[in-house]
């Protein structure tokens, strides 16, 4: 039992005794009396004010009024000011507590605060009054004994021995060995030190580094995590109803917000100060979040020290992914430029341009007229940009790139997890979610903890999950309905363009219809994304998953399945279905009375490239605009609301807790991961049709890193520093996308590209592709009336005059199937070899892990055990 004295001599006695209650948790005794004895006396305002109210040396800092006690967390609630009603010239008597509007909330709040006091937290209250509303700020601080108790219970890591903390950038080492100046490197001040660590134990406190300095032994993020854990465990109602934790109180709107404070402002001082004198938030802003740092390495250790491992691992993955996009973008750009250079030597395009009126083509619609193939000369040249041997090589390269990237990320993730003391991190037995606890129909005993907690029958959950799956299927059907609508829109627009009579519009009718329909499709995709994300959130909540992890995984699965179909259905249609079921003159296939779509004059591959460019780049531009504008609008609205409350005090500089309350609540990382995973799908699945996709992804990610950094540093309230050792379920999704990309690119090259038909024609007829255009055009079995004469028209297919497939078609089909089998087996075999050759954990890291375990064993062993061990190895002693 330790006595803690007040802040200054002569002040009111504020001695605080920390003890253990019956459950083993820290309890609080004030002036020799348990806090629970004051519950009846302090019913209206159960706030213990730590320190002298008149002493306020630094009200803007992250300290109590005594200037010494750190603020670890802030609870905020708002109360409307209601003037008392008069009755016959007298004030009306107040109603009983339970009869007042929101009376149960006041009771919950009172009991919650009393239990927080009993848990050992120090409290201090501030208010911002106005005529309409009063905002209450409750500052919380965890004293030393509470920190020590929960640090051991939460298995926090403590430092044993310092070690060098070099930069973890592999490119910096390569440039150093090549003696090339590294423009990406920058010196970031106050780099956090690195230690060999082990699990914290109170009984071995003297074995750990820095234990003689209690004020700085626990970092601010560790203190935040401990207080957050206390807030999550504290009961505010009946335990059997699982009325526990701050999250449920926030859902019930008992509190408006709960957050740790930022380490001061992010704006750097106007006067010149040394970089080492900046606060951690200013360091992150100057050396990370500013746009001028777009080409610099990210200070990951500083990010982890300030925001915790879960956010730091996201930025580490995003930076690692962006760095790996550099070689992919370089190779893709070279492939694109190679196609650009070879445009002039493309024999089929030259034959089309020089054909004149030699090839009279069949009408593209039932009311259209015949046309000459020479009219598509520009499109035939542009097609070679995306349909030449280069994309075949690039698709194989990107398959190897994707798997190698994932393998090396596992190594990077393991290194960071050890460096940040999360390698052996496993989530403890999670508590039930607040919504689950509130809606569960009965209580049952947890087989692990032995404590009764809310329970939802498994059969009922399975039936709800089945119903939710049906809702997903219905939404996917809606997506397909929109896809059919876009297809019909494209057909109607192309016919309308043709019937205008304008030569330019008639020639470019297909391109105009394709581009406009893709823009419409993009708008529908974004609209459906918003609708379905809201629906998926409600469905997942209705399914009653017990823990937050299960809830997030189910939500992630639902949203990703929908977004996969939502974003990729149109490119899949163009790549593998458009132009496949057209038929031939006299036997055209129809859909809802309209002829099935044919590929445009330049082929389906160039239409696929157009779609990928518009959907991918358009989505990135719109997302970046939203990420830049929406947080600022939310912050402006929040500041305006609080400015009305402060009123006359608005000219005064607000304290830290008020400034942070003006910021918006952190929205988490789900949307950020989802955006990057969808982008990963675009640059791997359809890369054979769009070699420039990695380049556009690279440009977007340079912007994305700074936008996300500015949101976390400048716009968001400081989130709790949660731990994490990897990116979780998203890695499994990336692996699935990498496997899908191999199969899709094989089919894309085999059936959508002209690579194999040209290769087979070169083998059988002419190596220079002379006469290839004429060979690919079949004669229609029917005669069309054109310019007053009966004539035969041509259409692109390997058919004879009767409409039957030629022998070349069946040979080509065999070659295509053989190519797919060979492509997949070779690529997948090489990928398995890469997986086997590249270990998940680097050898140097294994050595460090063994060294750390040895030091931990030595530090935590009892003296008697050490003596016995020494005697065993040195009998003479």
TrEMBL record:
The keyword tRNA processing does not apply. Residues 95-105 have a biased composition (Basic and acidic residues). One of its GO terms (cellular component) is plasma membrane. It is found in: Cell membrane; Membrane. It is a multi-pass membrane protein. InterPro entries: Anoct_dimer (IPR032394), Anoctamin (IPR007632), Anoctamin_TM (IPR049452). Residues 86-107 are annotated as: Disordered. One of its GO terms (molecular function) is chloride channel activity. The keyword Repeat does not apply. Residues 303-852 form the Anoctamin transmembrane domain. Its main location: membrane. It comes from the Eukaryota. The chain crosses the membrane at residues 311-338, 392-409, 471-492, 512-535, 555-576, 677-699, 727-751, 808-828. Residues 63-300 form the Anoctamin dimerisation domain. Keywords: Cell membrane, Glycoprotein, Membrane, Transmembrane, Transmembrane helix. Belongs to the anoctamin family. This is Anoctamin. It comes from Chelydra serpentina. The lineage of its organism: Eukaryota, Metazoa, Chordata, Craniata, Vertebrata.
